[in-house]
Amino acid sequence: xxxxxxxxxxxxxxxxxxxxxxxxxxxxxxxxxxxxxxxxxxxxxxxxxxxxxxxxxxxxxxxxxxxxxxxxxxxxxxxxxxxxxxxxxxxxxxxxxxxxxxxxxxxxxxxxxxxxxxxx
Amino acid sequence: xxxxxxxxxxxxxxxxxxxxxxxxxxxxxxxxxxxxxxxxxxxxxxxxxxxxxxxxxxxxxxxxxxxxxxxxxxxxxxxxxxxxxxxxxxxxxxxxxxxxxxxxxxxx
Lengths: 120, 108
Known about the structure:
heterodimer; A: mainly beta; seven-stranded mixed sheet; four-stranded antiparallel sheet; globular; B: mainly beta; three-stranded antiparallel sheet; about 60% strand
């Protein structure tokens, strides 16, 4: 059973960089797309972007200028960096796998999520 | 960008009743790119329906999806206590993914 686990600081200072890592267990990170999704407290889901195991990426246009994703296949991990954060970036951050089902891609496995608060 | 609008925002029903949730897209989408997710309080989202009408692995058959073009529906035939949650529709217009704002299904 594939499991994903987010890790990283729970508190980030405004204007600084948010950094999170997702560790994948129970399966290889290879041949899949991996994504980050966030959810502000009491609100809905926002897709941040995805990274392929080869390192190719695509990001939400609304966040593209501030987002960088990377992958480390040797550690079965992928990471998110979001710079110049503001309190509006406070959210639960989920990592998720984009599984190929019937020829399309869906978020089929999710991490438990980690709350990141942006505050001084 | 395709916008997904879900209605109603909140649906109040009792266990055993039928729930009908709507998702409307701002432009026509290929139904194979439409999915539904369930998020119980304090939990991670879970894939329920993919391709607008196919149930994901392990999803009970009381859940069904339908629709095409711009209008999609998630139906729960007989509500169980564990079905009271927030439901999100989601679409994929390569290479971007967007979610609806969610429908909260609450106990009446």
